[in-house]
């Protein structure tokens, strides 16, 4: 195990590089970023904060990385230890010569996740909460279903559980599979016009400022390759067939979808990436205890929405976590 060093987010955060097995593009690493709660006072025999025995593992979405300081502080202020994983070939983990975000099977991320969990150190007696956004929500849902004894709760922020053309997925998948087999790095046409990034900038909250590295999170999404898309569609197929997550699940979603054909103010009050009604239905296939929270005015990342929707998202997260703690 390497050494924790200061992270780009500031003194409150540290990062650790996690070496993984090399692939055809060379050396591969993941990176885990941690934020720890304030130590309990020496004179207090027991930490009475509600999440003092909780570890949170966050995984970002496509064309993304971890930069949300307030989200980390939500957890650490309640006593939890917070860990965010920049997956291989994303953000802090992207190395020269690598194809950004490229992978051929979402199960390959098991190595990244397991390395991040090992980096927590002593986890005896601690509960694990998985927190995933978009593609990270799909990845963590599949991982939780395969590792039922390691997870205590799952929280998903606009998880990409179904293809945007869900009804056409069975017809599209064989063509994508063929392309992935013979031309895995063929690129799909770029359809992102940068409107989602513009919407985030339009609604930026001065009380919750964020600095984004455009080299790690470009204004227009990273190139989509055939083999990566095939891996995503396989993940969607598994969700559609039904997963078996037997711990409480909370899914946070916008109330509406807006199709980003051209710029309009509507894009600042809706999810312009996913069809949220389809995601809400797919979420019910994750497990036996699923809460779906629909947030009026939220963007695709509900925690980057305009002020009112952002506060609503945090309030709903607080309510759900409070109930989860009380149930234990």
In short:
By secondary structure, the chain is an alpha/beta fold. It has eight helices and nine strands. The chain is 30% helix and 19% strand.
Q: What topology emerges from the helices and strands here?
A:
Layout lengths: L4 E3 L2 E14 L2 E10 L18 E6 L9 H8 L4 E6 L22 H10 L8 E7 L1 H12 L6 E5 L11 H14 L12 H8 L23 H16 L7 E6 L21 H8 L6 E6 L11 H21 L1
Parallel strand pairs: 4-5, 4-6, 6-7, 7-8, 8-9
Antiparallel strand pairs: 1-2, 2-3, 3-5
Describe the structure.
It is a single chain. By secondary structure, the protein is an alpha/beta fold. It has one domain: 3-Layer(aba) Sandwich (Rossmann fold), CATH 3.40.50. It has eight helices and nine strands. A nine-stranded mixed β-sheet has the order 1-2-3-5-4-6-7-8-9, sandwiched between helices. Strand 1 and strand 2 form a beta hairpin. Helix 3 packs across helix 6 and helix 4 runs antiparallel to helix 6. The longest helix has 21 residues. It is globular and about 65 Å long.
Helix coverage percent: 25-40%
Major beta-sheet overview: 9 strands, mixed
CATH fold-level topology? Rossmann fold
Average pLDDT for all residues:
94
CATH hierarchy: architecture? 3-Layer(aba) Sandwich
Catalogue the unreliable spans: none
**Class of secondary structure makeup:** alpha/beta
Beta-sheet strand percentage? 15-25%
CATH superfamily (homologous) name: Alpha/Beta hydrolase fold, catalytic domain
Helices and strands, in order, run as EEEEHEHEHEHHHEHEH
- Number of helical elements: 8
Q: Quickly count the domains.
A: 1
Strand order of the largest sheet: 1-2-3-5-4-6-7-8-9
What's the CATH class, please? Alpha Beta
Give the overall shape.
globular
Instruction: Report Rg.
Output: 19 Å
Number of strands: 9
